Structure formats: structure tokens, C-alpha cells
Amino acid sequence: QVQPVESGGGLVQAGGSLRLSCVASGDTFTNYAMGWFRRAPGKEREFVAATTKSGGSTKAADSVKGRFAISRDNAKGTVYLQMNSLKPEDTAVYYCAAVRTYSSSTSYTEARRYDYWGQGTQVTVSS
After folding, report:
1. How far apart are CA 127 and CA 73, in angstroms?
2. What are the contacts of 110-116 at 24+ separation with CB within 8 A?
3. Torsion sign (Cα): 124, 59, 70, 24
């Protein structure tokens, strides 16, 4: 099984950018589809972005489309979330998640599909 560990969060002004990283170690990284989720204060956890095992296909929530991009480097066992044009409403704890899958073409938007979660990294966007 993999253990995801996130990094890269912090405080940024509105309109700025951050790149989150998630290293997933402990198993063969290419066996896992990966996703990013977030939980804002007082809100439910929500889907942000997901990628297939190869990284050839991705999905993103409507709220972040055109601003956020998920990618992965299979050689480094790392998945990234590039966040541009950040807004105060993007403030949340961001979580990386992994699911072992035999499918090469499927990415998952539902949190219940994921088996392994990181501890989260705080992103705060000031206005």
C-alpha cells in the first residue's frame, strides 16, 4: 500500500499561485490512480482534481477548471496540483489520495473510491 504525503501549502494573496506536491511511497506508484480533495472550514470535503495511472487523462471540478491542473511524474512517485489565480474561497486543507486500480483509463472523482489518504496541507488565500 502507498502512503501519500503532501507538501507545498502556505499563505498566498488572491491571484497568486501555489504548487502542491504529493509523494506516494510504499508500493508501485503506477498501480494507483491519484486525486486531490479539499475541505474548507465548516464545509464538506470536496473533489478538486484526479488523474489516471498514466497521467494521460485528468478531471477537475468545475470550480477550479482553467485555474488548477493535476499532473504526475511516475518516475518520482509524485503527483502535483498547480494552482493559479487563487481565490479566497480556495482556502482549505488539501488532501492527496490514492486508489489501486487495474484500469489505465479511469480517474475517480468520489472520495469513497480512494483507499489511501495523506494528512493534508493547508492553503490560505488572503484577499
Report:
1. 32
2. 110/47, 111/37, 111/45, 111/47, 114/35, 115/1, 116/1, 116/2, 116/3, 116/4, 116/24, 116/32
3. positive
What pLDDT sits at residue 73?
97
- CA nearest to 119, candidates 49, 20, 31: 20
What pLDDT, in 10s, does the model give residues 4-44? 999 999 999 999 999 999 999 999 999 999 999 999 999 99
Contact partners, residue 109, CB within 8 Å, separation at least 6: 35, 47, 50, 59, 61
